[in-house]
Amino acid sequence: MSIKVYKPTTPARRKTSVVSSLDLTRKKREKSLTKSLNKKSGRNNSGRITVRHRGGGAKKIYRIIDFKRLRFDEQALVEAIEYDPNRNARIALIKYQDGTKSYILAAVGMKVGDQIVSSQNSVEIKNGNRMPLSLIPQGYMVYNVELVPGRGGVIARSAGTNVILQGVEGKYAKLKMPSGEIRLVSKDCSATLGQISNPDIKLMRIGKAGRKRHMGIKPTVRGKAMNPVDHPHGGGEGNQPIGLKSGPKNIYGKKALGIKTRSKKWSDKLIIKKRKKKR
User: Fold this and answer.
1) End-of-domain residue from the set 141, 172, 202
2) Do both 181 and 260 map to the same domain?
3) Residue 160: inside a domain, yes or no?
4) Confidence (pTM)
5) How many secondary structure helices (H) and strands (E) does the chain include?
6) Exposure on the CB side of residue 253, measured as CA atoms within 13 A
7) Which of 42, 58, 167, 223 could form a disulfide with 54 if both were Cys (CB 3.0 to 4.6 A apart)?
8) Is residue 207 a part of any domain in this protein?
């Protein structure tokens, strides 16, 4: 897998690059594992906009991904590595011995013809296999990690990410998250061995505004460029600072950029080291 850079035939093409599709083995989706996906345009169930600057974009068909993999001790054959428009990682089409097919998140190095298995017992240490954290060797990379046993993976599902298992003590496993946070998770939670596919996505350059519109993301105007009636940062002659003693604010007048958004939760006691602050 690599980055494909276009020839600079236009000003937009000069800065545009895409992830190569040479790793994909099939372009046609499995219809039995798909469903329609209605556009939300940043709105909640009552129709109010909760995420601004969303709308439009290309039509997408949702692929039903098996994040749980509860068919234990059944060998599955990797039939294809496919593109998923709803996520930046690759997905793998697997087929069990009884003919049942399923989509899973593909691991780096996974290829057509591989045999993978999910189990509650110890299995071969191989990328794509899935088992409880208590049975995985210390220092190994895992992804699609559960927070609650049996509910499916919720941690490290984005392209190129992984979690490092630092050890198991008592009833908890110690994990180092992609953000640098170190936290405890029940050792009975399952995880998939390896690193999730398509790590080169972080090297891709969007290149032009049109590609963002295809993703369903609209342009965002800076608050400083607005009038005082439209934003707390607005107004002034020429280039002026924000001018707020209490710090930057969002369009609604609430504090933004650097404030704590996490409320007190019962899981705070399971966080050993907080994540690194972005500069």
Assistant:
1) 202
2) no
3) yes
4) 0.89
5) 1, 17
6) 3
7) 42
8) no
What's the per-residue H, E or C state across 110-167?
A: CCCCCEECECCCCCCCCCCCEEEHHHCCCCCEEECEECCCCCCEEECCCCCCCEEEEE
Tell me the sheet residues that pair with 196.
Answer: 107
**Two tokens at 273?**
């080291």
Domain count, the chain: 2
Give the structural domain span for 271. Answer: 222-279
In terms of domains, do 89 and 189 share one? yes
Q: Which two tokens stand for residue 243?
A: 């001018």
pLDDT per residue of the chain (279 residues) written in tens, 0 to 9: 689 998 999 998 998 999 999 989 988 999 999 999 998 899 999 999 999 999 999 999 999 999 999 999 999 999 999 999 999 999 999 999 999 999 999 999 999 999 999 999 989 999 999 999 999 999 999 999 999 999 999 999 999 999 999 999 999 999 999 999 999 999 999 999 999 999 999 999 999 999 999 999 999 999 999 999 999 999 888 888 888 788 899 999 998 888 888 888 888 899 998 887 665
Report the relative pairing of strands 182-186 and 190-193 from DSSP bridges: unpaired
Contact between residue 132 and residue 120 where contact means Cβ atoms under 8 Å apart:
yes
Could you tell me if 168 and 236 lie in one domain? no
